[in-house]
Amino acid sequence: MRGLSSLASRASPAIKTVSEEAYNHRKFNRENPTKRKPKAALSPRSTDKFATPSRGKSGSKSPSLSFNSNILISDRNEEFRVKSVDHQYISEILSRKDWFLLINHEYKAKRISLNPRLLVSILQNQENPLHPLRFYIWVLKICPLLAKNQSVRSALANVLYRKGPVILSVELLQDIRNSGCVITEDLLCILIGSWGRIGLSKYCAEIFGQISFLGLSPSTRLYNAVIDALVKSNSLDLAYLKFQQMPLDNCNPDRFTYNILIHGVCRIGVVDEALRLVKQMESLGCSPNVFTYTILVDGFCNARRFDEVFKVLETMKDRNVSPSDATFRSLVHGVFRSVDPSKAFELLSRYLEKEAVLPKVVCDTILCCLSDNKMPKEAALFLMKTQEKGYFPDSSTFNITVTCLIRGLDVNKTCEILDSFVEQGLRPCFNTYISLIEALFKAGRDGEGNRYLNEMLQVGLVSNAYSYNMVIDCFCKARMMNRASETFREMKQCGIDPNIVTFNTLISGYSKNGETDKARSMLEMLLEHGFKPNVFTFSSIIDGLCRAHQIGDAFNCFNEMVEWGVAPNAITYNILIHSLCVVGDVAKSMKLLRRMRANGINPDVFSFNALIQSFCRMNKVEKAQNLFVSMLALGLIPDNFTYCAFLKALCESGRLDEAKELFLSMEANRCIPDSHTCNLIIDALTQQARFEEAKLIARKYSNQGISPNSIPIL
Fold first, then answer.
1. How far apart, in whole angstroms, are the C-alpha atoms of residue 475 and residue 484?
2. What is the pLDDT of residues 647-662, one digit of tens each?
3. How far is residue 582 CA from its own chain's centroid?
């Protein structure tokens, strides 16, 4: 201790200088971490490959946080007054050769408090991975118990993975020893874990083979760390080799060891080996736990061995091992991932029918999967059946499901389901209400839409600019501009100030409704409120003028927007290109497309579609094909509108073979034909009495859920 004290006294001028410069907010010339070649790591071969200590830039500036502000936090039922830390300043200290003495000085001066949140913050805000390692080593020396905190350990592990690798060079080890510290078993486990995640499997094995130089002995915990790292770096054979070496070092595999290996073999689909490992662990007195069974559930799902999946769940029940939420989520996601969604729904429905009590997490996850896969009928059926058995979804799951029902189910059925759950106390969120109201208004069901709107108002869901804007947008989309205007007035009467989004929504609504005069009036009001028109404002007005066939005025507005310093975007150009094509001025549309590209704006699929459709209607297929090639060269994916234009033109000109070849190339270009596209080619083939070819296409896409037209010969 006297030696350290003496060193600290000799270092005090440097400490004083660093401290003063930090508080005076002056830059000070720190020693850059040298990109030195390690002379020799524990393994000489490993140093050449991994000599760079950092994958990121060292010393990047973060916002300077002074030391004088106090933040009250609660940790482990104790209150700490934690000083804000200047992470850049800490980084400066950790980059110096005398880092340990300097950081110790800051701690003794009470400018650094020791608590998990502050330590995690410091670890996460270092660019050079050597710095968090040094800081953790200092914490390990000062407060070993705090260094074992799981949040601190996780923060170090993550930063070493993201910014690393950090290798154990001779220089680093000497630096640690000079500081009076050592590499502990706990720290080595963290380092090995980071190397495994990066994929340095051989380095993990080499370091583990030389741990005696670190003053450590092999232990089950170290073996588990290295086996886990090898599994994560896809070196399962090497992991097995270490597993077999455990008895030679008098280390007995435990449940963690077996779970790691079982996870490894399940991940590559060798589930029979996983079962063998389970039997082996049981023979050694290690009972499988919930993690073991969860891994097996996931593994059997990946292998599509669903009978065994449900046997695992039965085994858990027999052995009184309660499945966790992770077990059930692995089950549902695994089944949906491995088979067709309809088959997955059938399998899981059969499983739930046998359960006396429905696991809520299973029902929640099934509904989310059905919604993700756009299966509204199945979602509605599942909701009604499980509701009878006492299932009550949480608000989040219900809102996701109702959104799916609105998009693909009869609106009456959706309202019926919503009402039944609301009666039981479930409260839909704002987005659920607004989606349903919009669907009802579009369907002409104004009375029911108003009922849900009143419900939403009564529970206080419309109370700020965002919610009012959404209600106004809902009316605009339903072409109910009088109601939109009324809502706008109510908004102002309630003392809620409209914002640029409010005005843009109304301008867009009036423009699409052909009320250009009202759109202009709203623009004037926008200016009176001190807002500057943006690209959305101008694009909406241009769209309205084009819809009113006032193309000249639209281009005047286009030029005016440039004068306002507002740059047109792809949507603005697309509106004008499409409008010019509609009036037959394809030449001007092409000029506008070239101007668009010259101004650095990338055309999208809509930009090309308008022109391709125009050329195809004019029977100028070759010019359309040139645009198609340009489209692919830009990395754009043609959609069904693109292909339909070509297919129709080719079929009408008697080039059916070319049309069929183009149709068959759609999936290769990442475009799945819809029913309209399928029917177009099927009808063309049928008219030419090529029934077998039509039949093959119809059969293929019927299996994919697309409904083609009937073929007379079938």
1. 5
2. 999 888 888 898 888 8
3. 40
